[in-house]
Every structure is written in C-alpha cells, then in structure tokens.
Amino acid sequence: MAGFDDLASERSKAQFDVEEMKVIWAGSRHTLEVSDRISRLVANDPVFRKDTRTMLSRKDLFKNTLRKAAHAWKRIIELRLSEEEAAELRFYVDEPAFMDLHWGMFIPTIKGQGTEEQQQKWLPLAYKMKIIGCYAQTELGHGSNVQGLETTATFDPQTDEFIIHSPTLTSSKWWPGGLGKVSTHAVVYGRLIIDSKDYGVNGFIVQLRSLDDHLPLPGITIGDIGMKFGSGAYNTMDNGVLRFDHVRIPRDQMLMRVSQVTREGKLVQSNVPWQLVYGTMVYVRQKIVSDASCALSRAVCIATRYSAVRRQFGLQSNGIETQVIDYKTQQSRLFPLLASAYAFRFVGEWLKWLYMDVNQRLQASDFSTLPEAHACTAGLKSLTTSATADGIEECRKLCGGHGYLCSSGLPELFAVYIPACTYEGDNIVLLLQVARFLIKTVSQLGSGKEPVGTTVYMGRVEQLMQCHCAVQKAEDWLKPSVILEAFEARSMRMSVASAQNLAKFDNQEEGFLELSADLVQAAVAHCQLIVVSKFIEKLQQDIPGKGVKGQLEALCNIYALFILHKHLGDFLSTGCITPKQASLANAQLRSLYSQVRPNAIALVDAFNYTDHYLSSVLGRYDGNVYPKLYEEAWKDPLNDSVVPDGYQEYIQPILKQQLRNARL
Ligand SMILES: CCCCCCCCCCCCCCCCCCCCCCCC(=O)SCCNC(=O)CCNC(=O)[C@H](O)C(C)(C)COP(=O)(O)OP(=O)(O)OC[C@H]1O[C@@H](n2cnc3c(N)ncnc32)[C@H](O)[C@@H]1OP(=O)(O)O
Ligand SMILES: Cc1cc2nc3c(=O)[nH]c(=O)nc-3n(C[C@H](O)[C@H](O)[C@H](O)COP(=O)(O)OP(=O)(O)OC[C@H]3O[C@@H](n4cnc5c(N)ncnc54)[C@H](O)[C@@H]3O)c2cc1C
Hints:
Shape: globular
Strand content: 5-15%
CATH architecture of the domain at 106-270: Beta Barrel
Helix content: 40-55%
Bound molecules: ligand LJ27NJHV, flavin-adenine dinucleotide
Oligomer: single chain
Largest sheet: 6 strands, mixed
C-alpha cells in the first residue's frame, strides 16, 4: 500500500547509520536514552493526549492544560525524575503552560539576581512548587524599551517597605505568561524610587494571590488578556494583566544582587554590572535557540515524510506517479530547511556552552564576556526564530492542501511558534543590539583592543576587506575554508560599510536610526556566519558511524550555499564573490540536493520523534497517510450528525425560498 511501502523503501536506501545520527542529534548517547524513554512515557499516558486540542473552547483547553501540568508534576515526583528528565517530560507534553515561566524565568531570575539569603528563602519554596511564579516585566505601554517601564517601587523608610504601584493605564503589566490565572508570585520589574529620585528598573518579588483561596491580595487586580492567534496553540497559556494600587512589600523582596537598598534608604551598587538585571533574558534567549531546531525539525519531519508518500503527475513505466519529493523545486524548498534544522541544533549546543561559560565567569566576578553573550543570544534568537517561523509555513505549503488541515499538525505548530519572533525581545530590536555591538567592535579595531569570541575574524580586517574568492569550479565550494572566508568577508565588509556611513553623521544616535535597516542586514550577516562556522566546527569533532559525517558535511554545505544564494545581493555587492562563482555555487547546491535525496527520510528519522510528539497524520512514521486522514475527518464534531444543527433555521428556509422563486 502507498505510504507503508514508500517509507519502508526510502529507509532501505539510507547510506548512513541512522542510530549514530540519532546520538549526534540528541547530543550524547545518554541524552538520547533519556529523551527516548521519556517521549514514550508521555506518548503512552492518556492524560497527555493532544488530538482534541484544537476543538476545545478556551476554558476547556485551559482546564485541560492545568490537568496535564498537575499530572506531569505528579509523575515527576512519583518517578523521582531528575531535572533533565523533567525537562524532557515538559518538552514531550508539548503544551505551553504556566510551568514554563515558573521554571524557565521565575526561578532563574531569583538565582541570577537574588542574594544568597534571598535564594535560600525563595528557591526551596519555588522548587517544591509551594509558590508558583511568573516574570512580570512587559507593560501595556512598553515591552522592548525596558528602561521605559512605568511601574514604581517607592521605598518607604518609615515602614522599611517598597510601595509597588501602577501610576497609569499603560503601566499595567501586560503579557506575562502564567500571570492571568495561576501564579501566586511574580518577579515584577519597576522603577526604584528612593527619596523621590528615580534609580531605574529593578526586580521585586511580589505575592499576588492568597495561598489559601487563590484570591488576589488587596490592591492587586489580575486577569487574562484574552484569546491569541490560532486554535489551541498558545491559548493554553494564561498571559495576564496586572495592576497595583500601592501594594506594600518588605524591603528584602527587592532582588539585591546588582544593587542593594539599606535600612536607611541608601542605594549601594555591588561590583556586578547593572546589565545583570537583564540576565534572565540572556538565559531564555539561549533556550529559545535550542527550541528553534526542535520546532523546525518537527515541521521538516512532517513535510519530508509526506513528500515521499505524496505522488502527483509523471506516470512512470510501472504505472506509478512521481513522489513529490523527487521534484527539484520541492527539494530546493525542503532540503535547506532540513539543513537549517541541523545547523540550528549545533549552534544551539554551542550557545548553551557559551552561556554556561559566561555564568561560571560571572560567579568568579569576571564580566568580560557578558557583551558577547548578550550579542550572540540576541542575534541567534532573532535569526533562528525568524527562519523557523518562515520554515514551518513553508512546510505547510510543501504539504499542499492537506497541510492546511489541523490534522497535519502544521497550523497549530505555526500558531504556537510564531510569537517566538516577538517574545523575549522583538527580532528586529534584538538585531539592532547586535549591530551596536558590531559597530563598537569595528570602531575599536586598531586601538589595541583585540576582538574576541565570535568577532575574532574582524581582527583580520585588512585581509577580509581585500580578499578574492578562489572558487574556479563548483566543487571548490565544498571546501570549508572557502565558505568561511566568503561569509567572513561579507560580514566584515557590511559592518565596515555601516560604520563608515555612520561616521558621516554628526549625531551618532540619529545616524543609527537613519541607517538601521542596513545595520540589521549587517547583524544578520554576522549571525549567519556564526551558524555556518559552528556547523563547520562540529564537523571537526570525532563523528562515529558509517556515512554520518558525510551526510552532515552535505547538510552544512547546503545550509551555507543556500544562505549564499538567498543573500546573493550582499555577496555580489560587497565584491566577495563574482557572478560566475555565484552560479557555480548554485550548481553545487543542486548536486548536494541529489546527494541528500536518498537519505532524506533517514535524516528526519534521526530526530527520533514519536507520532505523539509530531501529532500529524501527514508525518506518521508508518506513512499510512490516506486511511488515517479519511478516518480523522469523521472525528470532527461537525460530523456527529448527518444533518447539521441549524439546518431547519438557516438552510431549509433558503432552499424553500429558492423553490418558491423557481415556481414564480
Ligand atoms: C507541564 C510539565 C511541567 C513540569 C515542569 C518541570 C520542569 C521543566 C522545566 C521547564 C523549563 C522550561 C524552560 C523554557 C524556557 C522558557 C520559555 C519561555 C517562553 C517565552 C516567554 C516570553 C517571556 C518574555 O517575553 S519576558 C520579556 C522579554 N522582554 C524583552 O526581551 C525586552 C527586549 N528589550 C531588551 O532586552 C532591552 O531593553 C534592550 C536590549 C532592547 C535595551 O535596549 P537599549 O539600548 O535601550 O539598552 P539599555 O537598556 O540602555 O542597555 C544598554 C547596555 O546594556 C546592554 N544590554 C542590553 N541588554 C542586555 C542583556 N540582556 N545582557 C547584557 N547586556 C545587555 C547593551 O548592549 C548596552 O551595552 P553598552 O555596552 O552600553 O553598549
Ligand atoms: C506569547 C507572548 C508571551 C509573552 N510572555 C511574556 C512574559 O512572560 N513576561 C513579560 O514580561 N513579557 C512577555 N511578553 C511580552 C514580550 O516580551 C514583548 O511583547 C516583546 O518584548 C516585544 O515588545 P513590544 O510588545 O513592546 O513590541 P514593540 O516594541 O512595541 O514592537 C512593535 C514594532 O516596533 C518595532 N520597534 C520597536 N522598537 C524599535 C526600535 N528601537 N527600532 C526599530 N523598530 C522598533 C518592532 O520591531 C515591532 O515591529 C510576551 C509576549 C508574547 C507575544
């Protein structure tokens, strides 16, 4: 039967060891074992079913999420799951919920911005979930501009308390996940006011609801901000609104690692940079990059399997039509996304290492790598989430009409994913942060301050401003050194050009605003270079397993040459390559697609996703698409009755009217 046979035959064509590729994708044999075990545990538990999610009303959907979260927590305790296993469980439950903000932002904020004493007081409560917290930063009037927040925290020396207040409508906290209906506590960001002087934004731990009856405490108004894009999707989350009317908290609930307020009302700065108040965002942006590879690989897995099952046109001698995956146009849209999923996986792994390294340094009072960590997390968060959001939509189109059905799994995946381009920093705003970092780096060239980390290549500015690409034949594009040099030269030249244009302005801030569209492009070029170079570095590691390294090399080259093709204008206009070399790159790309084609199904099998996680009829492991699509349609509540509700009120009268008209 079509589907079963197609995918079995595809799997038999694979030219590499899929089991070893699973280890590479997971990161280690241990991680693969944990992820495999927990994914099956979730898939086999009826409480974690997902199939009715898009049909539930908001209230039922939300209650169902509460049920799942409570059940997940129960299982974590019963099975004594480690933190790693619990995180895998959350991943495979696959539903945004208040727990994400509690574990992903509230706890990390206390760890990163609280003093030892504050951590000792609050963390045990939070770890045992005796309190549930959220991250209340964004307001109705300001999200990107954190320094523009209006909530005030005024120190009252009489009572040794802070008074938390929302002075305007636009100062209402707006968006925090978990706030609307669940959280008992929040880290609230507000302006620290002492003796009428404004000391800027800081974090404060504020209790919001009673631990007895869950009612908001006096002076606090809270609710949910309403339905969001798509059915199911992010509507499992209670993004909330919060207002304070002179709510008092003890002084020791200001997070005081960065600066302290004494009993006398004096502000004392510690030796850590004030930017640490933004530390949780660096942590979460790093997480979001890893998540991008998961979301993109999921969509790509669905689209690849379905493209091997789906046949249209091109009747062959054996009477069978062509698998759509064999069309070159399909390959040229699908395989770069497959390559991107792998590329984002590896850059995510590297970013996790970078974050851990920065954290260790911070503990030892070494703050030197913080600007680089901020630029990398901001830039890569922006690059990978934008590409993933676009990629999921492309996968939907790659699946034709059936991709638009909720049962394909793609509409909900798209709807739940796209806010990643906005939350934790709007993607353009974040690229502008990278641009500032690049301009600063360029301006310091030749000053004796050597560029570090991902900007080391800028130290070779003279060479990179003049070099000529050495490619003479298509295969030359397979050399990592050739690719790296082209990407480095493009990024260097775009940053230098931006810096030179900026220098023409008397007022640098005005110039930055005027040139911001170009600056964003320079930032994108730098971030793409990071992705390419981290993929190449990955390939320099020991990679066991028959054929595994060869497949990864092909994917790395596809990613790089696809980006080159997509941004050809940059590469040509900066003179990094010639039009002839561009056309050789394109020829090489086509040849790489042919190389990947027989391995495509095995390359998505290596993600090791269960059918439960994919929740897609089109992406089923067994390829049994058509019978299941047919079966799925009959489950729609609209098919509960043969004649629909409303027939007598609305259809019959029309039909009767038409009959009468016809008789006239
Ligand atoms: C169901 C089962 C449950 C079982 C559970 C078991 C456990 C399971 C575990 C689960 C774990 C889950 C983890 C998941 C992860 C969490 C998922 C989260 C989902 C998403 C939620 C989204 C949340 C949010 O959106 S929070 C709000 C985010 N807001 C923003 O991002 C605002 C964006 N704006 C900014 O960041 C800034 O204001 C910025 C950068 C735009 C500021 O611009 P500006 O130029 O005005 O800067 P200044 O403020 O003046 O700063 C100048 C100076 O500072 C430097 N800088 C800026 N930011 C940073 C930074 N972050 N770090 C370091 N340095 C920074 C900047 O570069 C400047 O430096 P100079 O040297 O002066 O140039
Ligand atoms: C699903 C979801 C969950 C969220 N969860 C939380 C949470 O838990 N806690 C929390 O505190 N917040 C949360 N947020 C808020 C989120 O962090 C902000 O929405 C985000 O930081 C973007 O800020 P904004 O809404 O102010 O966008 P704006 O800054 O108003 O963006 C609007 C437009 O203006 C552009 N723009 C803004 N500034 C500039 C500039 N300087 N230069 C050029 N263009 C600019 C942007 O590119 C964008 O196109 C969440 C948001 C969403 C969607």
